[in-house]
Fold this sequence. Notes:
One of its GO terms (molecular function) is 3-oxoacyl-[acyl-carrier-protein] synthase activity. This protein is of the alpha/beta class. The chain has two domains: 4-211, Thiolase/Chalcone synthase (Peroxisomal Thiolase, Chain A, domain 1, 3-Layer(aba) Sandwich), CATH 3.40.47; 223-376, Thiolase/Chalcone synthase (Peroxisomal Thiolase, Chain A, domain 1, 3-Layer(aba) Sandwich), CATH 3.40.47. The protein contains ten helices and 15 strands. The strands form three sheets. It has an eleven-stranded mixed sheet, with helices on both faces. Strands 2-3 form a two-stranded antiparallel sheet. It has a two-stranded antiparallel ribbon with strand order 11-13. A hairpin with a 3-residue loop joins β14 and β15 (369-376). The longest helix is centred in the first third of the chain and has 16 residues, at 64-79.
Amino acid sequence: MRPSITGLGAVASVGRDVEEIFGSLCAGRGGLGPMRGFDHGLYNGRQLFEIDDRSAPGVDRPLRATGFLLDAVAQAAADAGLGDDLSGIPVLVGTGLRELRSAELRWRDGAPFDIDRLHFGTALRERFGTADTLTVSNACSASLYTLALGADLLALGEADTVVVAGVDAITESMHGLADRVQPNPPTSLRTLDANRRGTILGDGAAAVVLRREDLRRGERARGRLRGVGMTCDAKHPTAPDREQVAEAMRQAHRHAGTRPQDIDMVMLHGTGTPLNDLVEITAYREVFGDAAGDPVVTGIKPMTGHTSGSAGLLGLVVALQTMATDRVPPLVNLDDPIEEAAGVRLVRGRETKHEVSLAQVHGFGFGGINAVAIVEGT
């Protein structure tokens, strides 16, 4: 079964809807700016990819992640012609940290925040009438895990339509952790660059509507989901494992009924950390073999930051926009590619025109939680 993707929605530092985000990415415009929500005096790294929705620098508020999620879901539902009534439609949310930032503000500042708001189901029910919600907290691959789960619900006949989403707002605890392990903080995120120094966090949310293959009269498809491969090696809290990353790619192809040589574009996870980029590109070359130089290869994190649980689905939304326009956003900040990327068809510096029918999208998370999705255009 190949579910149809009938609606798209997204918000990020580079735009508040899918069209604005894609336009910014193709133009090479990133969302990195001075840190707005946290005290600059406490951290070495003072730049983040934040969505600018606060009243003033240094003034934070609860429920930002929930707001991003509701925006993305509303966009996807409208794009699919569903409107605001999602009663009877499951909504699956992938996230790294849920509303942890709200809990931080309640603990530190006494900001009003009810514990039932930690779960996104409360707000989804109030806004869309959704009774069937599920939150998957699976680190940076969470939204691709929910994508696979949504496809399974359709295949099993448990639903005819599913909304799949991913969201995260930057939390101070996660920024503080990254700041301590990156004492010489990166001033830019440089995927696959020999001088990369680490990742930079970003706010973001994305959502898609999945439907069974039998579309309603007049309904359009943005694309089709061919398959998702997933592994969980649990070998190390943070370090990725090349064998299991490669296995996630192979699984995706087995489920999709495709071969590496069929792929026209690869959307990298591409966090800009020394180990992740090395493992990802070597696993890619292992799986693709002689075909490693065939597809165009790009990534969006140098412009969006690492949007954690929403990252995989945000990359998938961008891949679908590429299929619709033949415009491939570039890997910015890539001046000196690492040796392991030699011969790979990297899109560097500026967008390129390329016809894409099949795209492979990566999402790799802490704890060895890996997911790879393959989507096709219409």
